[in-house]
């Protein structure tokens, strides 16, 4: 679907920069590139099909009295379990306040006190109050609404919605455009978009798993596409589970934001026992991976896990956390008086397409921003509310880099018919995709073992053998990269937990870098390993 509103005549014939994805990273990058002509291709209408619109906590930025860049860096490094890139992190954190001011200028209504100063909240593993929020849990929605309005008012930005990008076109060392399938990926025809610069902002991988908080568009297509085009992928094994997805059998699972625990909500089992204090001195505010395993163990042992907000939030719930309140009430749970059933769900991917400080990937002509990347700032475990920060900081840096390195727009034909090549497929409904999601949750999930990973790699190979569709190839490539890297990393660190090697190992205090060719070789070796 091409929205006429977004199709100014002046664009005919110019396709200089193509941005894949209309979440926070994509929209922010387009706005920062203005007045340079930009085309955004988004799988769903912007504002939909993007994790950005669902963010509940907010954005972290060292802006309060007493907070410093160094403190924010130190918290990020501590959360990242020994493999955070400190240089990149310092750069991101230092630029955070300026990007918050940009968002204010675009009209984001961050919460303010009576004097008009920004209200800063505290979240798990942050040593200071540094999260800017909107009406408790409405940050993502409000940010996206403001940016969508700004994009609509920017004539240099053309938005094409419902186009699922399936391929990055590579010519020698360069990415020279993309190929997309219209009608939310259902069209028989594909359309090519030549471009001098492609910025990949396609979000995360949550829907590779059976239980996730992410929209279905976040199924790892971006990482797979980039890997298939030859890009280096970093740290794919590090997947973050959110410990408190609301456990009511919905797909995607609604989220009970971390801010609830920041405000004093506690985790109990069905016997009313507060179990996190036995596991970590910070209790409910321990790092996400620790809380996730605590919740996972209670659920697996049949005792269940519940977030009890009745004392900490109580009657203020509807005003303070309207989104969570609505999700609970829709499932017949009143969080003012009742504990909320919770379970861990895939929430965020620390790994992704390797980028440098300017958002450049290892292939010329391809930049990337947001969750699809691995900039190194999250290490093995993301600090809450650092991902929206990462999206805006690096999207802005990419805009500067492109403006500096590609000064003149190029005239090309856009919208070439790239022909029919492949049956369209509704990814979310297809049996192989469902099988893959179950496999990833079971064998490459909160708790992994060598045996479970070998099994996953063999099953992935089988699924790959019988499914030749391009879009599925992108998705399964990402699954393979995650499973292979998780098998290689014979230790536990951050979001990656191996029950067969539960400790960190000094020789593994390093990031993972993997090309698809390397992953294919490792997967072939693993597939030949005899089952125990
Ligand atoms: C429920 C929830 C709550 C969260 N809360 C917070 C929070 O409080 N603070 C925080 O910092 N982070 C939070 N996060 C994480 C954060 O929202 C994301 O990491 C961030 O929004 C990612 O932004 P993005 O622009 O990279 O991706 P997205 O916002 O996911 O956007 C990706 C875009 O790419 C499109 N797309 C995908 N594949 C294709 C394709 N093949 N072709 C074309 N388009 C494609 C999608 O449709 C979408 O438009 C939360 C995440 C979730 C799910």
From TrEMBL:
This is L-aspartate oxidase. Catalyzes the oxidation of L-aspartate to iminoaspartate. One of its GO terms (molecular function) is L-aspartate oxidase activity. SUPFAM superfamilies: FAD/NAD(P)-binding domain, Succinate dehydrogenase/fumarate reductase flavoprotein C-terminal domain, Succinate dehydrogenase/fumarate reductase flavoprotein, catalytic domain. It is found in: Cytoplasm. Keywords: FAD, Flavoprotein, Oxidoreductase, Pyridine nucleotide biosynthesis. Pathway: Cofactor biosynthesis; NAD(+) biosynthesis; iminoaspartate from L-aspartate (oxidase route): step 1/1. Its cofactor is FAD. One of its GO terms (biological process) is 'de novo' NAD+ biosynthetic process from L-aspartate. It comes from Sinorhizobium americanum. The keyword Transferase does not apply. Residues 16-388 form the FAD-dependent oxidoreductase 2 FAD-binding domain. It is an enzyme of class 1 (oxidoreductase). Belongs to the FAD-dependent oxidoreductase 2 family. NadB subfamily. Gene3D superfamilies: FAD/NAD(P)-binding domain (3.50.50.60), Fumarate reductase/succinate dehydrogenase flavoprotein-like, C-terminal domain (1.20.58.100), Succinate dehydrogenase/fumarate reductase flavoprotein, catalytic domain (3.90.700.10). Pfam families: FAD_binding_2 (PF00890), Succ_DH_flav_C (PF02910). Signal peptide: none annotated. It catalyses: L-aspartate + O2 = iminosuccinate + H2O2. Its EC number is 1.4.3.16. GO terms for cellular component: cytoplasm.
